[in-house]
Structures are given as C-alpha cells and as structure tokens.
Amino acid sequence: MNRASEWLDGDVTTLTTEPLTALDRCDRCGAQAYVRVVLPVGELLFCGHHARAHASAYVDVATHVQDETDRLHAEHGQA
User: Fold this and answer.
1) What's the pLDDT score for residue 11?
2) Which domain holds residue 50?
C-alpha cells in the first residue's frame, strides 16, 4: 500500500483546527473544501476528489492533514 492511500485510510495524524465551512473552497476547482493540508509554509484546501488525486504530491511534506470528507458523505451520500 502506498503512503497516499494510507492517508486516505486515516493513518496520518491530523491537527484539529477550525472546521471547514462552505466558504472554504478547493484550490484546484473551487468546489467546497473538505480537506485542509497544512504545509511548512501555508496551507492548501481541497475537495475530496482533488485531495485524493494529489495526495501523493503532499503526503510526505504535509505537517498536518485535516480530513472532513466524512461530512461530505454524511451530507451528500456515498455515490
């Protein structure tokens, strides 16, 4: 199993920060963000799709990952 898919299974330590809101938008597509990636110099916000798509690029450099994709599934169902 690669590190990116391990993160998606919850193996990365997360930092509890303010909950993401509808005003927080994905840095790639502008959809509602459900994942905050804290880097040594700033942060990135991603929708669930782009968080998964780019996980391999940031999993080794992220200092914390705040994953609220469980809210996405609760609010919109698991398609």
Assistant:
1) 47
2) 3-76
